[in-house]
Design goal:
This is Type III secretion system (T3SS) negative regulator GrlR. This protein is mainly beta. It has one domain: T3SS negative regulator GrlR (Lipocalin). The protein is about 0% helix and about 70% strand. The chain has no helices and eight strands.
Length: about 110
């Protein structure tokens, strides 16, 4: 993925969904939504993310999971858009699909 700010929309195989924003800077990814923050690194066409809850009133798209790791594969969809698909590292039956659209360049 190119450096920048991305609007992300995600859906789990539990049919729950959410949205947030992420910053991509070289091989690092940082972002969040109303209840969780995400941090991780790229390795080739794969991202490994740590997802941590900061708002105890929020529920993850996987239900009771509050802190977990994601392993996602990246596909370039063109027009500054990407499709990411993968699973929770601790339980591969929890799957996630993410669309990411670049909305801005990084300024710092």
């Amino acid at each position: 993925m190119k450096n920048g700010l991305y609007a992300v929309n995600f859906r789990s195989n539990n049919q729950d969904y959410g949205s947030g924003i992420v910053s991509v800077n070289n091989d690092a990814v940082n972002g969040g939504d109303f209840g969780f923050y995400y941090q991780g690194k790229f390795s080739g066409n794969q991202i490994k993310l740590s997802v941590r809850q900061f708002n105890s009133n929020a529920q993850s798209v996987f239900g009771p999971l509050n802190n977990f790791h994601l392993i996602l594969s990246i596909s370039d969809e063109g027009n500054n858009g990407y499709l990411l698909e993968g699973h929770v590292a601790e339980n591969a039956s929890f799957r996630l699909q993410v669309t990411a659209k670049k909305v801005a360049d990084l300024t710092c």
